[in-house]
Write a structure and sequence with these properties.
This protein is mainly beta and 171 residues long. It contains three helices and 13 strands, in the order E-E-H-E-E-E-E-H-E-H-E-E-E-E-E-E. A seven-stranded antiparallel beta sheet has the order 4-3-7-1-2-6-5. A six-stranded mixed beta sheet has the order 11-10-9-8-13-12, with no helix packed on it.
Length: 171
């Protein structure tokens, strides 16, 4: 699979200790703990695969990571600020339990009743109720488990079941 198809899941924010460990911010840090696939980091505009030696969630939005090639603080410092990407295959195993609204920007929204609604242009990150901003009309649909039926990372689609009238008010 081409690394350009990978989905952004977080960012390296700092080093941890002197042994080469890193702290990453992610919407769901648990996804790294059992990942067998390489994680891709964007370094100076290029996506480079790294293998995880070990990873552990340390909070609801942070994970401590050790890559197989970052055994010194100096090497780890070069990766601070890099975006993290995972393959659609790695994310598919989590289904809708991987609930990062930011990961679906650029995906098409397909409503079960209305059909193709449009492309997600951005996410309004409201703490309790993030909203998908869709198409030129700026249709707002909550990124909520009652509405988001399925996320297909391979097809880059979000399948929704929007409440009656929610989409119609924008047409």
């Amino acid at each position: 699979m081409d690394v350009q198809d990978y989905v952004e899941v977080g960012k390296v924010v700092k080093t941890h200790g002197v042994g080469g460990e890193l702290i990453a911010e992610l919407d769901n840090p648990d996804i790294l703990e059992n990942s067998k696939e390489p994680i891709v980091l964007e370094i100076e505009g290029l996506r480079v695969p790294f293998f995880i030696e070990h990873a552990q969630a340390v909070s609801a939005q942070r994970a401590r990571i050790m890559f197989d090639c970052t055994h010194t603080e100096q090497r780890a410092k070069t990766l601070v600020g890099c975006k993290l990407f995972l393959s659609p295959d790695a994310l598919e195993q989590y289904g809708n339990s991987y609930t990062s609204p930011n990961a679906v920007v650029g995906f098409n929204v397909i409503d079960q009743k209305k059909g193709d609604i449009g492309r997600i242009t951005s996410i309004e990150n409201i703490d309790i109720n993030p909203l998908m901003v869709i198409g030129d009309n700026n249709i707002l649909i909550p990124f909520h488990p009652d509405i988001v039926v399925k996320i297909d990372f391979r097809k880059k689609q979000v399948i929704t079941s929007a409440p009656e009238g929610l989409i119609s008010i924008y047409q």
